[in-house]
Each structure stands twice: as C-alpha cells, then as structure tokens.
C-alpha cells in the first residue's frame, strides 16, 4: 500500500481486501465441495429416471386411454349450471338435464370401461422433471360429474344397480388417478372420489338401497379404503422429479438457476451465486451439497409419512394418538430452518396428510353408514348404539376421536369431529332416515327453496 495515503483510505483498502478474501475463501470452499456433490446429484437423477422408466402408457389394460377420451368428449360438450343444481339436490330433473345425460352416454360408458382396467399411466416426459407438462383433469372431472348426474337420476327412479355400477366406476377412476406418479394426480383422485361419495351418501341417507346393495357398497368401500394409494408414494415421486430438474440446473449453475431462472447467467451472476452460498452456510457454502441434503431430508419425511399412513390405515378400531402428526410437522419445520432448498422446494406435507386422512375418513363414515342402514333393514330399527356394531367401530385416525352416534328412532346422526373443534367445516356427519329416495330429495329441494327465500328477503 503506498505511503502517504490518508488513514481512512488505508482502512478502506484493508476492509475491501478482507471482504474480497472472505468472498474468495467462501467461493473456493463451496466450489470444491460443489464438484464432489455434483456427481451425487447426477447419480440421484439417473436413479429417478430409472424409476420413472417403468411406467408405460401404451400397454394393454391402461385406464388412461378411456379417461382421456372421456375427458376430451366432456370438454367439447360444455357445461351447464342447471346440471350441477340437479346434482347438488337443488332442483328436480329438467329437460336440459335429461338431454345432457342422453347426449353423453358414450362418456359414461368410457368411465365404466376405464374403471375395469388394471392400471393408470399417462404420457409424461419424465426427463424434463417438474417442467414436464401434466394433463389437465378438468375434462375428466366434468365427465365424472355427468356420470354422477346419471347415477342420481337412476337412483331416483329405482335403478339402483345401474347407479351403483356408475358410482363404483367413478370412485375406481379416482383411485386410478390417485395412483399416478404426481401429487397433482393424488389430489385429483380425491376430487373424483368425493363426487361419487356425494351421490352415494344421498342413497344411503334416504334408505334407497336393499340389503344386498348395501353389502355391495360396504365391501366396495372397505376395499377402496384398504387399497387406496399412499400419499408418501406420490410425495416420493415428486421428490424424484425435483432430482431430475435440479440435476439439469446443476449442469448450468444451481445458484444462478435459483435467482435467474432458466434465462441463465446475467451480469450479476457471481454476486447472486455468492448470496446462494451464504444461504447454504450449513453445507459449507456449497449449494450442491445443500441440495443433496435437501433430498436426504425429503427421503426422511417420505419414510416417516409412509410409517404414519400404514399405522393409521391398519388401526381400524384403536384410538390413534395425534403425536405422530405433530412430530412430523415439527421435523418438517426443523428441516426448513436447516436447509435453504428444502425450505423453498418442499410442499406442505402436514396439510396434504390431513387432507388425505379426512378423505379416507369420509369413505370410512359412508362405509359405517351402510352397515347401520343394513342393520335397520335386518332388525327393523336402527341400532340403539354404535356398540351394537362393535367390530366395525371406527375412529378418526387424524384426531383419535371416536365417532358420535345419536339415535332419534326414525333417524340417526353419525358425527365425526374434525381436527379443529371450533371449525364446523372440519367435521364430518351423515343423517340416516327411513324416508326413501323420492321423499328425501323432495325435502332436500324444499329446504333449499326455503333457505333461498330467506336469503332473498
């Protein structure tokens, strides 16, 4: 440093030199570790591609061929608010609704045929990772709605076997889709099943089914719950997609991809990369090492989720503690604090698991309702208490709370409290009656009209 410089300027030079040295040291350490971690990331991506390569969509027995055709036809058929008002029990069948059913019989038949297939797999460019295009489920949801509308109409007119065939087909379609390899598939599967359960609930609640039909329903729902795909499998597949994506990004520069996106390096690329390194200080300033740790954490969450799901599904009569859910969420929160990439890439595992458990609980609720309805037909009255069906006692495996059963002689209410006692929407319930389908739907429609009149005043 030249003599005669002002003291303040000397100090400034020293500070700049120290900062530059720190930047070089951090960048150097990180770069060295990046090189070793990069090969691990590539190996993980190759394993992920090998996993996905076992999915084939062009083999025989693939339900996708039927569902995709049904979705395409439903997309072109348009939608009508009147149809869904009938499906929700607001209005009676109309000419337009009948016409829609008759015009879409081919769609309904495609859903039926798809439900009979062995597996479900759709065309997907796995090598693109999370950037690959996933098919839209809007058309399939509409096709399922049309099928459910016909099922409700058949049920209303005493054609229960035909209605059940369509409803079972809808719910099998939901199971097929949920068994896809993406989280979006899993959530779409729930949406399909809920549509079938909504109509099935009306039939059971009204007392529309005979003993033989109720036995069919009970067996179907029991099998549906026991063999429903695991959420952990979908989450594990999502992590594999991320491995492929980040391996491709690592070939460029993972830090620059985070900040610059797919556009690549800009004039401030080094500065942005350095900022990423600072966020990855726990991994010795190596984004690549941090990324590998992120996937290690995801695998740990995957294993924990799989254990929780398996235990919950096996425990049909025992009270389940909520501790496992709390512990899982605590672990996820801890990982988010520890790892930069986990924090930005990991989904909300707790919310997804709660959603899955609630949907399974609804299947379990309708299943139990079918047993109660069958008991009434056999004995002439509803069970005085749920203990009379002791072997079928159920609990909410999200909360550990047993269902509540109230007998009003002519009707019973089966209620399951949700995770949040203060949130009415979190609870599940069904009221079973002796009304019959016609009277039940008439009462439902009249109640809707009365409520609408009150709101209009």
List low-pLDDT spans. Answer: 255-268, 316-321
Helix content: 55-70%
Radius of gyration: 28 Å
Count the E strands: 5
Order of helices and strands: HHHHHHHHHHHHHHHHEEEEEH
Question: What's the total helix number?
Answer: 17
How would a textbook summarize the main sheet?
Answer: 3 strands, antiparallel
Placed side by side, the strands forming the largest sheet appear as: 3-4-5
Average of the residue pLDDT scores: 83
SS-based structural class? mainly alpha
Strand content: under 5%
General shape: elongated
Give the N-to-C terminal Cα separation.
Answer: 86 Å
Tell me about this structure.
With 457 residues, this protein is mainly alpha-helical. The protein has a domain at 56-208. The protein is 67% helix and 4% strand. The protein contains 17 helices and five strands. The protein has helices at 7-52, 64-77, 81-87, 95-103, 105-115, 138-156, 160-178, 183-206, 211-226, 231-252, 254-260, 269-279, 287-314, 323-338, 340-345, 349-379, 437-456, and strands at residues 395-396, 401-402, 404-407, 412-416, 428-432. Strands 3-4-5 form a three-stranded antiparallel sheet. A hairpin with a 4-residue loop joins strand 3 (404-407) and strand 4 (412-416). The protein is elongated and about 100 Å long.
């Amino acid at each position: 440093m030249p003599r005669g410089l002002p003291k303040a300027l000397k100090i400034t030079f020293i500070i700049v030199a120290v900062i530059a040295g720190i930047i070089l040291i951090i960048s150097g350490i990180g770069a060295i570790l990046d090189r070793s971690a990069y090969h691990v990331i590539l190996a993980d991506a190759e394993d992920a591609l090998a996993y996905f390569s076992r999915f084939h969509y062009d083999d025989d027995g693939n339900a996708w061929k039927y569902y995709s055709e049904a979705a395409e036809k439903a997309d072109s058929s348009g939608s009508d608010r009147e149809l869904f008002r009938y499906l929700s029990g607001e209005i009676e069948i109309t000419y337009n609704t009948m016409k829609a059913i008759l015009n879409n019989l081919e769609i309904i038949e495609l859903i039926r045929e798809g439900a009979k297939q062995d597996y479900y797999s759709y065309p997907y460019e796995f090598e693109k990772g999370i950037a690959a295009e996933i098919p839209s489920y809007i058309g399939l949801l509409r096709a399922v709605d049309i099928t459910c509308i016909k099922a409700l109409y058949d049920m209303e007119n005493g054609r229960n076997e035909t209605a059940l065939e369509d409803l079972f087909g809808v719910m099998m379609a939901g199971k097929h889709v949920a068994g896809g390899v993406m989280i979006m598939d899993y959530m779409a599967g729930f949406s399909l099943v809920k549509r079938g359960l909504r109509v099935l609930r009306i039939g059971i609640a009204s007392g529309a089914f005979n003993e033989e039909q109720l036995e069919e329903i009970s067996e179907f729902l029991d099998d549906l719950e026991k063999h429903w795909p695991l959420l952990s499998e979908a989450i594990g597949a999502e992590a594999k997609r991320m491995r492929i994506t980040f391996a491709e990004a690592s070939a460029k520069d993972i830090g620059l991809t985070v900040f610059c996106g797919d556009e690549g390096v800009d004039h401030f690329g080094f500065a942005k990369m350095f900022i990423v390194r600072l966020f990855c200080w726990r991994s010795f300033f190596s984004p690549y090492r941090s990324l590998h740790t992120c996937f290690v954490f995801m695998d740990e969450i995957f294993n924990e989720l799989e254990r929780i799901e398996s235990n919950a599904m096996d425990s049909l009569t025992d009270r389940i503690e909520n501790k496992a859910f709390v512990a899982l969420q605590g672990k996820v929160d801890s990982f988010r604090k520890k790892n930069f990439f986990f924090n930005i890439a990991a989904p909300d595992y707790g919310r997804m698991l709660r959603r899955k458990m609630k949907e399974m609980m609804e299947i379990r609720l309708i299943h139990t309702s079918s047993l109660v309805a069958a008991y009434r037909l056999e004995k002439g009255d509803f069970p005085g208490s749920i203990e009379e069906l002791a072997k079928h006692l159920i609990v909410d495996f999200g909360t550990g709370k047993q269902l509540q059963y109230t007998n009003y002689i002519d009707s019973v209410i089966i209620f399951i409290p949700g995770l949040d006692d203060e949130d009415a929407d979190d609870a599940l319930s069904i009221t079973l009656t002796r009304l019959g389908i016609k009277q039940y739907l008439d009462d439902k429609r009249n109640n809707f009209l009365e409520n609408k009149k009150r709101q209009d005043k």
